[in-house]
Amino acid sequence: MKKAYENVWEFFSNEDFWAKIGIGSVKIIAIILVAMVISKVLKIAVHNIFKMRQKAPIRFSERREATLLKLLDNTITYVIYFIAFVMILDTFDVKVRTLLAGAGIVGLAVGFGAQSLVKDVITGFFIIFEDQFSVGDYVRIGNFEGYVEAIGLRVTKIKSWTGEVHILPNGTITQVTNFSLHNSVAVVDVSVSHDGDLERAEEVIRHLLSELPEKYEDMVAAPELLGIQNLTSSEVVLRVTCETKPMRHFFVARALRKEIKLRLDENGIEIPFPKLVLYNREGEEGLPQPRAKADA
Q: Is 0.90 surpassed by the pTM of this model?
């Protein structure tokens, strides 16, 4: 027992041991700090390069720039910290070359069983290379729909309008609907009563539509009244369309409905609504007589 205690005491009282730990700790801290600084500097440099490209006559779209910036930031982080990890192992006298060679053999063996991972990486590369969609785009992939939060070589993150973030392996992405590549179209149907003056209603709506582009910057062009879209037993349906900036058609459609309703009310043009007519059987000669009219 005494001998074991002496061995432990000798081990922890060894100056060379503590000197080695101290020097190793300083080296590790220095390596981590240098890696953080280099990573930060490289990211700033990449961002500045993209800012300079904005002034060039030929440049990427903002969507693609955002995607490439995020991908390059991740790549820089992975590469720098991997090198730092290897240097830290070297401070502990770990034979890094032997370890890397062994890792290469193990990686080759694992690669045969990780075909889905390889498929994810290859698909992710072509998504970015072909600019199928970018960060900030509104897309539909399978059953998921929302804004693209991030695109990596392995996974893509989509945030739905209710806040959920869906993480999809790139290898599972076989079909994409991108709503952000081109301008959208807002479609609004306006109902007018059969008893109303249809010509006057169309004139009022057209006059209103010509004023709206100055009020709403999301409208690419003035809204257009296409004409009668449908005829029913109680109403005449007029259709209005408007070209908008990408993914702003929902907002513009709501604004159009509000503006048209207010303008029709100002001009005394009634929008049809269900009515109920009640008759009294106790009329003259047993004929039913009107009694009251009420809204449904």
A: no
